[in-house]
Design a protein that fits this description.
Its main location: membrane. It is found in: Cell membrane. It comes from Astyanax mexicanus. The protein is mainly alpha-helical and 326 residues long. The protein has a single domain, classed as Rhodopsin 7-helix transmembrane proteins (Rhopdopsin 7-helix transmembrane proteins). The protein has 10 helices and 2 strands; from the N terminus they run ααααααββαααα. Strands 1-2 form a two-stranded antiparallel ribbon. Helix 2 packs across helix 9, helix 3 packs antiparallel against helix 9 and helix 4 runs antiparallel to helix 6. The longest helix is centred in the middle third of the chain and has 43 residues. The protein is globular.
């Protein structure tokens, strides 16, 4: 028996499924888990319906937000229920086939979310740094092609990662656990590809956005003092709008990084495949999918208006797609 097999056996013994007695704490955890799943699913579903249905929201940036909402929706449907159940039950009860699906979809949607946020950072940088070139070159169709390529590449990458890694360490089924062990090579590749590259893009481009936003703030101040022409006022209004959009999206990105960094830092410095802290950091990563719709509700008036239209069934009107929501 190899050293890895010995370690995996120890992990299996350590996390064998205990007898579960129904208690007030257990019921409370189940209610919280159900509430988190429902909020994630329905919150992101509202974003998906809003962006898809209302033509006024068919903008390049909103296509990226739609892609992020779809990945968050998949987290709520296919990932969070199984992981939260594992937390409340302290074991895996769904069998090896569902375990393989769970591991693939969780790796896939996590990487998709990270790269969606990176693409949003790139989009905001070019929208603010070169607004005229952005309006000329960046269209909804072009962004949709980029998003589809992003999904295809990341699905292929995660499928290859689990397939080739499976020949050496792979998916380990303990009697009561669903574990994934990456060998040293794939672990390093995954860390660089899914964490270092996109997070570096996010940080670099948003630093550049803040630098440009500061310059715009000074320019707006000068325009407000000196401008008398109508065109100058329009320019000031446009720059204010871009700065506001960048500010809101920066909040989304800051929350995302706050949820993301603890998990990957733990992965980088801890060799344990299953620990209590590991489970808690993973659920923090997934709960970002729950938080995003709350951010939209707090900072985007169009999302609140769309939600009102959807929940009051005004969306069933034949002309609802043309309603003004901005």
């Amino acid at each position: 028996m190899t050293l890895m097999e010995v370690n995996l056996t120890d992990q299996c013994l350590q996390f064998s499924c205990p007898e579960r007695s129904v208690s007030a704490l257990y019921v409370f955890l189940c209610v919280c888990a159900a509430a988190a799943v429902l909020l994630t699913v329905f919150g992101n579903l509202l974003i998906i319906i809003s962006v898809c249905h209302f033509k006024q929201l068919h903008t390049p940036t909103n296509m990226l937000i739609l892609s992020l909402a779809v990945s968050d929706f998949l987290v709520g449907v296919f990932v969070m229920p199984f992981h939260l159940n594992r937390l409340t039950e302290s074991c895996w009860i769904f069998g090896p086939t569902i375990c393989m699906f769970f591991v693939l979809i969780s790796f896939f949607v996590t990487s998709i979310s990270i790269y969606n946020v990176a693409l949003i950072a790139v989009d905001r940088y070019f929208a603010i740094s070169s607004p005229f070139l952005y309006m000329e070159k960046v269209s909804v169709g072009n962004v949709c092609i980029v998003v589809l390529c992003n999904w295809f590449v990341l699905f292929s990458y995660n499928s290859a990662l689990l397939y080739f890694n499976g020949n050496s360490a792979g998916l380990i089924m303990c009697p009561d656990q669903c574990l994934i062990v990456l060998n040293e090579v794939w672990s390093l590749v995954d860390l660089v590809f899914v964490f270092v590259i996109p997070c570096s893009m996010i940080i670099i481009f948003y630093v550049l956005v803040f630098v440009i936003a500061k310059k715009h703030a000074n320019a707006i101040r000068d325009l407000n003092v000196q401008a008398t022409a109508h065109g100058s006022k329009n320019m000031a209004d446009s720059m204010k709008s871009e700065r506001k959009a960048a500010k809101v999206l920066s909040i989304l990105v800051a929350v995302f990084l706050a949820c993301l960094f603890p998990y990957f830092i733990n992965t980088l410095f801890s060799s344990a495949i299953e620990t209590i802290s590991f489970h808690h950091l993973v659920i923090l990563l997934y709960l970002n999918s729950t938080i995003n719709p709350v951010i939209y509700a707090l900072f985007y008036p169009w999302f609140r208006k769309c939600t009102k239209v959807i929940l009051t069934l005004q969306i069933c009107r034949t002309d609802s797609a043309l309603m003004k929501v901005l």
